[in-house]
Amino acid sequence: MHTDNGYGIVFIGFAPEADKERALAVVQELREASDILVETRLRPKQVMTRYPLSFDDAQLLMNRFCGLGLRCYLIDLSPVSKAASGVSLLGLLLVLSIVCNFIFSTLLFLPSPFSSEPQKPAPAKTAHFALGGDLFEYNGADYTSYILDVDETDLRIFWKDDNGQTLSNFANLSKYLESKGQSLVFATNAGIFDPNFRPVGVFIENGRERVPLDLGTGYGNFYMKPNGVFYITENRVGVVASEDFLNVTATHRVRYATQSGPLLLQDGVMNSLFTEDSKHRKVRSGVGILGDKIAVFVKSNEPVSFYEFAAMFRDHFGCQNALYLDGVISNIFIRDFDPVPFGEDKFAGMIAVVEKRQVPVGIPPNIDGMSGPAGAQAIAPSDNPAGMVEPDTAQ
Q1: How far is CA 142 from the centre of its chain?
Q2: Largest CA distance in the chain
């Protein structure tokens, strides 16, 4: 049993199924009942505890938070607190958290450089965004993001294993990679798929076209035009309208590709089918592009409209092109957040970052609340498999 008084709790976000109003009310009750919790508003990566706790007390408190739908993890401060005699690390973290929250809030409410009409934004300065995983808030909604540079990562798209069996989920994908001496760094669902877990539209895996390009018309999100393709070549990533993908394959060797729809942004302009006052909100995932090297993968942690989702890619990240990947079944795995890939989801394709397996050094944070898919919902097919589910033609 741990006895050192050297543990804090770090808040990283709300689970999609969380009752935020109730959770915040309980947190406020705890604040009023004791001085354990800080008074600042909950923000991603914020230290919630005012001073170090014993491991058992911190674990009990964290379990209560997770039961309310708060995602958080323990941070071990004991090695530092034993050596430090003046300023505690927790105090420094609290100050840093408050400063970061102030800067974030200031930037969030600066006047937008875009008018009410969708305009082409200036190319984003990618140095403003650190590569890797992050949790952030935009326009009142919580999101999880993963940003990568294709020149610095091994980015692939998977569907089936060597025996032709659908890999289906992050846990199976991780085991498959381990059998080849590799490890999973990041993963998210690829584009929309049908009830038989077959990708809808073009799917290219390791240079081989497994499903052809679909330029047809139909019902559901996939067929909201323009739809598009996310592709990976030897040295670039891109999102293009489906009709333009043949031009890409004519001039580049495409290693991986997944088709989905609708296209969120095309050359900086939002899809004209989206409306700002849309009441149609769902959990959504997508990918945006910065230049031709940086891919920005984002999943909303709560329901948002297509307009809100596209505006986030355009205004927060400065993406010129972005593609909707899927809806309520979407999920995202980031090794830095959760060391164990979860396996309750079921997808067709999965986009992933892979690296050669190394001997682990140290123990990664124990992030409770992210060890399984948000919501622990029953296995479901894609949100509108081949146009079978969502009447989403007017946004």
Answers
A1: 10
A2: 69
Query: pTM of this prediction?
Result: 0.65
Q: Return all residues near 130 (Cβ < 8 A) that are at least 6 apart.
A: 147
Q: Can you read off the two tokens belonging to residue 381? A: 């097919």
Q: What is the pLDDT of residues 260-313, one digit of tens each?
A: 999 999 999 999 999 999 999 999 999 999 999 999 999 999 999 999 999 999
Between strands 294-300 and 70-76, the pairing is: unpaired
- Residue 101, SS3 per DSSP: helix
For residue 187, give the nearest of 54, 318, 336 by alpha carbon.
Answer: 336
Which residues does 283 contact at the CB level (< 8 Å), separation at least 6? 16, 299, 300, 301, 302, 303, 304, 327, 328, 330
Tokens of 276: 């700002």
Closest CA to 307 of 230, 218, 394: 394
Q: Rounded CA gap, 148 and 247, in Å?
A: 25
Evaluate whether 368 touches 62 at the Cβ level (below 8 Å). Answer: yes
* Residue from 20, 53, 24, 52 nearest 40 by CA: 24
Residue 313 has phi, psi (to 5 degrees) of: -65, -40
Place of tokens 């809100």: 308
